[in-house]
Amino acid sequence: MEVPGAVCSALDSKVLVLNRVYAAIRVVDARRAFTLLVKQAAEVIALEDGQYVNYDFESWSEVATFQQEYEAEHHDWVHTARLVGGASALAG
Predict the structure, then answer these.
(1) Which of 12, 15, 74, 79 could form a disulfide with 33 if both were Cys (CB 3.0 to 4.6 A apart)?
(2) 1 located within any domain
């Protein structure tokens, strides 16, 4: 439930969950999607240069490191004790 005037975190963004044949299953918040990614139960699917690319947690972390250094203003960021990751990649 959204509260009018409340500040939303990047982890509250909506993420579409797909099955193995890329059919939509449900929508979850980025917090849940991030958990699935870390547990290796999901991958990030990103559109890059007109092509879809899949990332597991490790490769997505590497891309996020690059994006934070060179494209920081174009993404929302999730900060943990050991990682900074792009939430917009999860949600977008």
Answers:
(1) 15
(2) no
pLDDT band at 91 (very low <50, low <70, confident <90, very high): very low
Burial class (CB in 10 A: 0-12, 13-18, 19+), 58: exposed
**Residue 46 resides in a domain:** yes
Q: Which of 51, 42, 40 is nearest to 17 (CA)?
A: 42
**pLDDT, tens digit, for every residue of 41-50?**
999 898 889 9
Give a yes or no: residue 5 inside a domain: no
CA–CA separation, 79 and 90 (whole Å): 14
Distances from the Cα of 26 to the Cα of 15, 30, 43, 80, angstroms: 9, 13, 15, 26
